[in-house]
């Protein structure tokens, strides 16, 4: 299949998923009503206050997180990393705790920026450790990231425990779309802009992943490129965390699946990864809404199971793990 | 505390034997490490003494029995984690693998959840908690042998892959447990929450007796295996040529590990990095290849760290339930350091 036809197929599939997402829920608005187009006032209100915002939030968060994972993988030239497995997500949660404690009245946007700043520090720490690793075993890198994430997470937990914020931390670390209503998710549109920026910079990230020497030799401003990449990653992580909470593994599994389906092609992969991320999170969210209806299972939990299974399959499947 | 003191007795007994009949002592037996072991024992006793007496007010009978149960649980858990870690490191021929890092703890928690999920809370409430514990432990031992036996033999050469697989398995078990908890009837969930809310501060006391029994038996079994373990540590090929049934012994040791993990997880919940912390500490302190010495030292280190840590956090700082987090934080840093040392070497 040509790239164009694959992209079209992916788009159509995603559209179907989005329609399903619109039609699923406890309220009185199913497929028949949605397709007939004859909606009562109440149904219209339901659609515009709850279903549309939720579906948009799902798609935006999924696309953003998957692309953030891709950037992380390009920069560290390793297939098995993503923001939530290298400590960026945990650092961002630390930032949220800090701003909640020190200046609770800060508007959401400000909190998001603080969280992103902390996330950036976490990402920088990870990259600094990577630079010191002489043995570049493909599997040592994600391992170091996971432990770093664990350490920062334990620190955040301790602070949350000390200042009675355990519940807030729990909500931050477990992605859940059930609270999304019109007026409470719009920050996520930032993710769309970040994805566009990622497409613009994708080729430079790939070069930067080849190491400082190669990148500089090819005329790339290495430090600046890595910095831009990490800023994008931290912003995506922070904006998702503030709006819906952390969703694990999206950024890890989607780029791998896409690379299996269409191969690696620098900048051209980014749209696939964005579509794939949106689709995967949408699917997990729908599953979470359907299996225990009218209750919901948070997307963080379903994604944890689905993502871990795919990750394991990747680990068993590949003999070499170098990107 | 009982099995720790019997271990000490045996340790001293061995030292006497050795004085009568000096044999090869170059591998760091009890004689060379006597000072260190005595110092560790003294420190452990000091920590226990402080834990029992510091800041006590009112009736001593109450204070001693209340703190005594908690102390017994902490000591049991420390011993269980230390021994299971050292054993696991021997059979996997590696010093950074531990049962908890490989996801054992979360496997146990997943089994607990799955049992309530499939049998219903009514069943789990009516059934005796000791019997339930026995069933869960038996299943864990079976599963652990099957899963990790295969993993260890098929991926032994690629340590990073093994570690990463173990880590992700842990995440998968945890997510599956969380998923099942969401699927369970809310009434059943309350029961489950009671079952699983164990932490260092809210020890499941009903299981203390049976836990002590299981740990005692497992420790005895380990003690009988000591010479075999020393040979096993020489590596697979050497061990086989020296007449050890390698595969069978490995599975047996794995089963013992699973027993220890089941007890510690049932009592205080999953603790990822603590085993690694005490095993590396013990290794750096006594530097012995003898399992008798290593196990004793690791066990003592665990008791010192847990009882001492709990005393400082609870009496000194007033953070009653922070021990788990502090242990996780410090252990994670040690693990990272070990990994980087290997990686950059």
From TrEMBL, chain A:
Biological process per Gene Ontology, one example term: siderophore-iron import into cell
Compartment(s): Cell membrane
Spans traversing the lipid bilayer: 56-75, 87-106, 112-131, 138-161, 181-202, 214-233, 239-258, 270-291, 297-317
Transmembrane listed as a keyword: yes
Membrane topology: Multi-pass membrane protein
Pfam family, one: FecCD
Domain of life the protein comes from: Bacteria
Protein name: ABC transporter, membrane spanning protein
Phylogenetic classification of the source organism: Bacteria, Pseudomonadati, Pseudomonadota, Alphaproteobacteria, Hyphomicrobiales
From TrEMBL, chain B:
Gene Ontology molecular function: transmembrane transporter activity
Keywords for the protein's UniProt record, in alphabetical order: Cell membrane, Membrane, Transmembrane, Transmembrane helix, Transport
Entry membrane topology: Multi-pass membrane protein
Transmembrane segments: 36-56, 71-94, 106-125, 131-152, 159-177, 197-218, 251-281, 293-313, 319-340
GO process annotations (BP): siderophore-iron import into cell
Coiled-coil region(s): none
Record's GO cellular component terms: plasma membrane
SUPFAM superfamilies reported in the protein's UniProt record: ABC transporter involved in vitamin B12 uptake, BtuC
Subcellular location: Cell membrane
Family according to the record: Belongs to the binding-protein-dependent transport system permease family. FecCD subfamily.
Name of this chain's protein: ABC transporter, membrane spanning protein
Organism: Fulvimarina pelagi HTCC2506
């Amino acid at each position: 299949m040509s790239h164009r036809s694959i992209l079209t197929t992916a788009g159509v599939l995603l559209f179907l998923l989005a329609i399903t997402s619109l039609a699923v829920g406890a309220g009185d608005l199913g497929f028949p009503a949605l397709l007939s187009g004859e909606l009562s006032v109440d149904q219209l209100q339901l659609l515009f206050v709850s279903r549309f915002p939720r579906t948009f939030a799902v798609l935006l968060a999924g696309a953003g997180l998957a692309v953030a994972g891709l950037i992380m993988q390009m920069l560290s030239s390793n297939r098995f990393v993503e923001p939530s497995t290298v400590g960026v997500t945990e650092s961002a949660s630390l930032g949220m705790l800090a701003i909640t404690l020190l200046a609770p009245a800060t508007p959401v946007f400000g909190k998001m920026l603080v969280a992103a700043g902390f996330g950036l520090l976490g990402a920088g720490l990870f990259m600094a450790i990577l630079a010191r690793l002489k043995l570049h075993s493909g599997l040592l890198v994600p391992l170091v990231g996971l432990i770093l994430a664990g350490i920062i997470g334990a620190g955040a937990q301790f602070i949350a425990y000390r200042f009675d914020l355990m519940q807030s931390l729990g909500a931050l670390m477990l992605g859940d779309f059930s609270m999304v209503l019109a007026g409470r998710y719009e920050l996520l549109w930032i993710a769309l802009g970040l994805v566009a920026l990622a497409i613009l910079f994708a080729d430079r990230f790939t070069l930067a992943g080849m190491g400082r020497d190669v990148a500089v030799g090819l005329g790339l401003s290495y430090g600046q490129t890595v910095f831009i990449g990490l800023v994008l990653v931290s912003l995506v992580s922070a904006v998702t965390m503030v709006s819906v909470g952390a969703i694990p593994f999206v950024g890890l599994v989607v780029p791998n699946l896409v690379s299996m389906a269409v191969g690696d092609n620098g900048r051209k992969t980014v749209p696939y990864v964005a579509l794939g991320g949106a689709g995967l999170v949408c699917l997990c969210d729908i599953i979470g809404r359907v299996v225990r209806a009218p209750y919901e299972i948070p997307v963080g939990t379903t994604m944890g199971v689905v993502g871990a299974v795919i990750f394991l399959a990747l680990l068993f499947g590949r003999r070499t793990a170098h990107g | 505390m009982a099995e720790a003191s019997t271990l000490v007795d045996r340790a001293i007994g061995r030292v006497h034997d050795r004085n009568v009949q000096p044999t090869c002592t170059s591998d760091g037996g009890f004689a060379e490490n006597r000072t260190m072991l005595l110092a560790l024992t003294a420190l452990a006793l000091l920590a226990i003494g402080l834990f029992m007496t510091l800041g006590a007010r009112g009736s001593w009978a109450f204070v001693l029995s209340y703190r005594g149960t908690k102390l017994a649980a902490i000591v049991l858990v420390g011993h269980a984690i230390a021994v299971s870690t050292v054993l696991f490191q021997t059979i996997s021929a590696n010093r950074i693998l531990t049962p908890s890092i490989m996801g054992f703890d979360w496997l146990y928690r997943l089994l607990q959840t799955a049992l309530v999920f499939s049998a219903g809370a009514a069943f789990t409430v009516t059934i005796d908690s000791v019997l339930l514990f026995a069933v869960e432990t038996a299943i864990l031992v079976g599963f652990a042998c099957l899963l990790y036996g295969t993993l260890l033999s098929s991926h032994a050469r690629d340590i990073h892959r093994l570690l990463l697989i173990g880590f992700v398995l842990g995440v998968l078990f945890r997510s599956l447990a969380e998923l099942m908890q969401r699927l369970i009837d809310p009434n059943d969930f309350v029961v489950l929450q009671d079952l699983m809310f164990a932490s260092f501060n809210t020890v499941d006391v009903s299981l203390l007796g049976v836990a002590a029994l299981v740990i005692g038996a497992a420790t005895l079994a380990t003690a009988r295996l000591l010479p075999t373990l020393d040979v096993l540590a020489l590596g697979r090929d050497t061990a086989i040529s020296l007449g050890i049934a390698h595969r069978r012994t490995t599975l047996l040791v794995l089963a013992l590990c699973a027993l220890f993990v089941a007890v510690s997880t049932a009592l205080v919940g999953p603790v990822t990095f603590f085993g690694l912390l005490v095993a590396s500490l013990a290794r750096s302190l006594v530097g012995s290849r003898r399992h008798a010495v290593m196990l004793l030292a690791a066990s003592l280190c665990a008791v010192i760290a847990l009882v001492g840590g709990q005393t400082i956090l609870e009496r000194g700082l007033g953070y009653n339930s922070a021990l788990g987090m502090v242990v996780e934080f410090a252990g994670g840093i040690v693990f990272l350091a070990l990994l980087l040392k290997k990686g950059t070497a």
